[in-house]
């Protein structure tokens, strides 16, 4: 019996060794894969930093990239770097706020598009699926045609756009809460509200004068020119609150992709997570839209690009979508400002012109494997 036991014992030990070896190889491969993904994200961030310096140099004033970086660093380290008064005015007060606003707006559109595609289980979902942009545009139309606004001065259009965008979002969320916060309910409610506010905006345009119509049309095309240092306070606060909240639900979103029932069996309240993430994303999108107007395709394309390059893990996919969205938006804005200078093409038009061909490529190419595999 002893002779029969020892071979079985050696076989079991050999089996355990093989299993441990495979587990170690799997862990090693996972670490290698994660290292490549983090390296890629670091590369895109470095590319954004370089793009900021290069984009600032584009314009009638002759600047070098080193001068741009020196001017920016001089604001934080005045004892180390010197700054010319003219460069301070052009770089810090005029050009850099627009680019920084584009980075924040693109990042917000990217992460909100990623979250909405996850909770709605719809690859065509974007920050405008719920008609938030239509509500904001109607708020601008009310202010332009009737002069009815929550506040006056430079925040007249911005406050109205934010208020009606949030009104639209709250209406959809309330309707979904009464009917049941399923992905189908949110999508259908968003489509209905989108058509409603689009029709109301067209009605306002019918009664508008030429000047009022020009204001409504310009805002509806999307632009980053509204960003200035005096308007960044609320922007920073909203981002500081909403972004960590969305990222904290990344693991729940991973579980929800396999189905609501499966997620519930693992302890995730799918409807509650869906409502919370949609409310937070709506606040973030409404904040961005009230400054930028209608800028489409960034929130749609950036998550798809990130998913192709990073994979479907939302712990990495959410920040990757935001980083790629920021890069796409500032590059599109740079092209819009300089392609037929001195005429500046609205940013929303340029993102659509650049985004549509890529989106059609995604549709025709079909589902692809993860880039790193």
TrEMBL record:
Q: Where are the transmembrane segments?
A: 38-56, 99-120, 132-151, 158-180, 186-208, 229-247, 275-304, 316-337, 343-364
**Keywords on this record?**
Cell membrane, Membrane, Transmembrane, Transmembrane helix, Transport
Q: A Pfam family this protein belongs to?
A: FecCD
Q: Does the keyword Cell membrane apply?
A: yes
Chief subcellular location: membrane
Superkingdom of the organism of origin: Archaea
Q: Which InterPro entries match?
A: ABC_BtuC-like, ABC_transptr_permease_BtuC
The answer on whether this UniProt entry bears the keyword Membrane reads yes
Q: How does it sit in the membrane?
A: Multi-pass membrane protein
UniProt-annotated location(s):
Cell membrane
* CDD domains the record matches: TM_ABC_iron-siderophores_like
By sequence similarity, the record places it as follows: Belongs to the binding-protein-dependent transport system permease family. FecCD subfamily.
- Indicate what this protein is called per its UniProt record: Iron ABC transporter permease
